[in-house]
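For reproducibility, we list the full input for the zinc ion complex.
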Amino acid sequence: MLRLVRFLALLLFMTAVAARAQTRFTTVVIDAGHGGFDRGGIPGQLVPEKVMTLDVSLRLKKILQDAGYRVVMTRDSDVFVPLGTRVAIANAQRNAVFVCVHFNSAPRSGANGIETYFYSTESAPLAGSIQSAVVRGAGTENRGVRRRGYFVLRRTNIPAVLVECGFLTNQTEATFAKIPTYRQQLAQNIARGILNRPALEARTSSTNRSSRVNVGAQPFLDQRYIREAGPTHHRSSKSSKKKKSTKKKTTTKKKTTSDDDQ
Ligand SMILES: [Zn+2]
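The corresponding predicted structure, in tokenized form, follows.
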């Protein structure tokens, strides 16, 4: 009997340790997409992505700090930060998660909705949690959670996700994005997704299931290789050669109906 009690106590302890190891973080690294000469989005886009990502990121920073978390920003002004630097900043943190904030764009103005990316398996619950929270709050199309090998997701050694907060090339979503209270709501929902992560694991299983469908339905591996071939993923190069490759990527996307803006 005593042995059984001891065993149960040990089991309970181990479960608690495992849960804590998986869910405990004290720092959130917020990565506002693009910046400086890198406006984000696609050529000719009216609402600059870099402005929106920074605004939502700064709002998110305040919410998380108020909730008692330590926040590290990869940028907090309109400057260009290379992807390698963003990753290095993230990897220098302990007990941390990495959250990239982006907005989507597509040549087809009808493309809309929210999607969240992850790469490592350990990042999947966080991606699911953020996706659920943001979609629920935004009330728009749920494009699902997707696994993709973006540079910033592959090279980070802490749980890392990239949330696409809607399409700035979609009239409705761009109109919303321009409203400060909507951006505040986006930030609040991202924060909710980050902070609720442990409790949401079970509930996000359906989101993850749908992500597998999404991943299978599109040639994401090819795109990953395209991105891996370059030194950076989120367009960050300075050369005209890069411009050419971006153009090429856009064309590819048109064909594959993948609308993300990376
Ligand atoms: Zn972006």
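The CA atoms of residues 7 and 13 lie 10 Å apart. The pocket of zinc ion is lined by residues 33-34, 40, 49, 102, 234, 261-262 (CB under 6 Å). Both points were considered when choosing residues for closer inspection.
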